[in-house]
Amino acid sequence: MHTIIHPTPSNRSSRAALTQSTAKYRQPNYDCREFPDAIKLTVYAPGVNPASIEIEVRGPDIVITARKPHIVRVNWQALHLESAQRDYRLRLRLGFGFDYSALHAEFHDGVFSLTLPKLQPIASPTRIRDVA
């Protein structure tokens, strides 16, 4: 009995593009704390200019990109510093329970603090039940 196995299309190009895009960035260290009315996210990104920080909301995800200034030195030699000079990108799935439009962010000495308030639950109307 012979079996014919049809080859599946190769996803090499999409995998290569994914690894290239993630190779340009590195994930920063971060701390996430939940409070009753908000969540506080602290991202450590040394060497970043505050004007180069981008915050993007994609559905339930938040993407924070922080770019470093890239300086080309006159006496440049390859010393494996390329990985230390990469930009930062942090992707977190926080969910739909937050008010992304009321986001508050601060940046001080390489520490980026982001406060995201929680959405208030919609109060359902109370039903009065007749008891006989």
Give a structural overview:
The structure is a single chain. The protein is mostly beta strands and 132 residues long. The chain has a domain at 28-117: Immunoglobulin-like, CATH 2.60.40. The chain has one helix at 12-23, and strands at residues 25-26, 29-34, 38-44, 53-58, 61-66, 87-93, 104-108, 111-117. A 4-stranded mixed β-sheet has the order 1-6-5-4. A 4-stranded antiparallel β-sheet has the order 2-3-8-7, with no helix packed on it. A hairpin with a 2-residue loop joins strand 4 (53-58) and strand 5. The longest helix is centred in the N-terminal third of the chain and has 12 residues, at 12-23. The relative contact order is 0.21.
In short:
The protein has one helix spanning about 10-25; strands at about 25, 30-35, 40-45, 55-60, 60-65, 85-95, 105-110, 110-115. It has about 130 residues and is mainly beta. The protein has a domain at about 30-115: Immunoglobulin-like (Sandwich).
Keywords:
132 residues; mainly beta; Immunoglobulin-like; four-stranded antiparallel beta sheet; 35% strand; elongated
Structural class: mainly beta
**So how many helices?**
1
Whole-Å distance between the termini? 76 Å
- Overall CATH architecture of one domain: Sandwich
Gross geometry: elongated
Oligomer: single chain
- Which range does the strand content fall in? 25-35%
- At CATH level 3, the topology of one domain is Immunoglobulin-like
Number of strands: 8
Q: Which H/E pattern describes the elements?
A: HEEEEEEEE
